[in-house]
Amino acid sequence: MFDKFEKFMNKWLTPLAQKMDKQPHLSAIKKSMVAMTPILIIGSLCLIPEAIANMIGETNPISQFILTNMDNFYLPFYLTIGMMGFYVCLCITYFLSDHYKLYVPGAMILGAVGFLLLVFSFTEDGGMVIKYMGTKGLFMAMISGILAVELYRWCKKKNFTIRMPESVPDFVSRSFELIPTTVIIVGTFMAIRLLSLEFFDVLPPEILTQFLSPLVGSLDNPWTFVFITFLGCTLFFFGIHPSVLSPITAPIAAQFLAENIEAMQAGQALPHFYTGGMTSAFANFTGTGVTFGLVFWCLLSKNQANKRVGQVSLVPALFGINEPILFGAPIVLNPTFFLPYVIGGTILGTFPAFLMKAGILAKPIFNPPYVGVFLEGFLVNGHWLTIVVNALQMIGSILIWYPFFKLYEKQNQLKVEDKQDSKISEEDLALLDDLDF
Q1: How does pLDDT run across 176-215, given as a tens digit for each residue?
Q2: Cα-Cα-Cα-Cα dihedral of 77, 79, 84, 87, to 10°?
Q3: How many C-beta neighbours within 10 Å does residue 76 have?
Q4: pLDDT over 90 at 299, yes or no
Q5: Half-sphere exposure (Cβ direction) of 376: Cα atoms closer than 13 Å
Q6: What is the pLDDT of residues 50-71, one digit of tens each?
Q7: Are 46 and 77 in contact, with CB atoms under 8 Å apart?
């Protein structure tokens, strides 16, 4: 049964995942979302002053100072998460133009101009509307960055450029070479904007939002979260890092986090459970597949090799990194560990999502850095029950992994005994050969 499943994975899913990981556009999106990690952390930290004021009461001098300066405290949020779409567009044009060996500064400027042409608007009194500069414009930012670079690449291939004499400095020459390309790219983005306003009376990002709303909404369903977690564990079991899914999931998770923060600012109920911090703190608790149980039993093993694997894997596991146990035990491509890793890991990693959806566990407002298990979970939503849920995950992992680890130890012992028997047989044959009849 397992052999057939492995053949299916190796024939269909593994090549597809590898192609996705190497595909230039998806790779640029993935790298860009990773580059946004500091922005998400800093933007989320802006909620802490208001939370402190709520905890210690509003009448003391510290709270009064915080509440008086709330606009200043929230300024980093507006300039980080509130401008995230713009930053993602810049990053995508950087990574993609670098991959194609284009002039990177020029590509970044063209991508930024193209994105602004699609999302920028003004109010009746002349004020700027930056609604789609943040997470609401993430998908538009991705399309803008990719389209700008591909148009630049096409123009270069077709030699739509101005040739300057060799005596002209390189940086000056490159700027003049971009003039025809800039005209074509700006004209293309202006045409898209005008057509959208003419036929639909809305900006392009609003059309894209309506088109993608089923996909975006589905990710805030616990059962979709179960499927994504199961798929991630399955991919990693076959040696493919689940980050291949991030070009799809990371932008939506970032958008949901921003909407949760905005809801908290407005004093409203938080709408979403699915964020990057929530995934890290629960679905990847002690690593993808919640593998702490295997680390625990390896530490207690009488087998010195298993014990060493457990010792090496313990500290990384406490910070959500489980590559040492994945490849050291190993879990990867080990049929004995398929059920506890993929099925057990999916169950343990996703039940907190159902608790959040039911209102038992608070929804996330922060994407903390890797600060260690329990503390990371608490920082995600500031709810004490998170520590209890993480403890249940740890206990559940220890219980689930026990019978499979014992089976694995028994299999290893049988292999050792078989090797010893084969060595004895070889020695007996050698003695018989030496006998002189």
Answers
A1: 788 899 999 999 999 999 999 999 999 999 998 888 888 7
A2: -150
A3: 15
A4: yes
A5: 26
A6: 777 776 777 788 888 888 888 8
A7: yes
Q: What are phi and psi of 180, to 5 degrees?
A: -60, -40
DSSP 8-state code for residue 121:
E
If you search the block for the tokens 């292999």, which residue do you land on? 415
Is the Cβ–Cβ distance between 302 and 344 less than 8 Å?
A: no
Cα torsion 102, 104, 106, 109 to 10°: value is 130
State the Cα–Cα distance between residues 90 and 27, nearest whole angstrom.
15
- Contact present, 57 and 63 (Cβ < 8 Å): yes
Backbone angles phi, psi at 227, to 5 degrees: -65, -45
CA distances from 348 to 116, 195, 283 (A): 43, 49, 7
pLDDT at 3: 66
Element (H, E) at 352: helix 345-357
Alpha carbon 11 to chain centroid, angstroms: 26
State percent of the chain over pLDDT 90.
49
**pLDDT over threshold 90, residue 399:** yes
* pLDDT at residue 2, rounded to an integer: 59
Q: What is the mean pLDDT of residues 3-21?
A: 69
The span from the CA of 187 to the CA of 332, in Å, is 51
Residue linked to tokens 């057939």: 4
Element housing 134 (H / E):
none
Contacts of 111 (CB under 8 A, 6+ apart): 89, 90, 92, 93, 144, 145, 148, 149
**C-alpha to C-alpha distance for 75 and 82, rounded to whole angstroms:** 9
Sequence-ordered list of residues with C-beta below 8 angstroms from that of 241, at least 6 positions apart, any chain: 21, 235
How does 12-27 read in b/e, with b if 16+ C-beta sit within 10 Å? eebeebeebeeeebbb
Helix (H, G, I), strand (E, B) or coil at 361: coil
- Can you give the pLDDT at residue 193? 95
List the single range of 216-220, 228-232, 303-307 with lowest mean pLDDT.
216-220
**CA-to-CA distance for 35 and 361, rounded, in angstroms?**
29
Q: Which two tokens stand for residue 60?
A: 């003391």
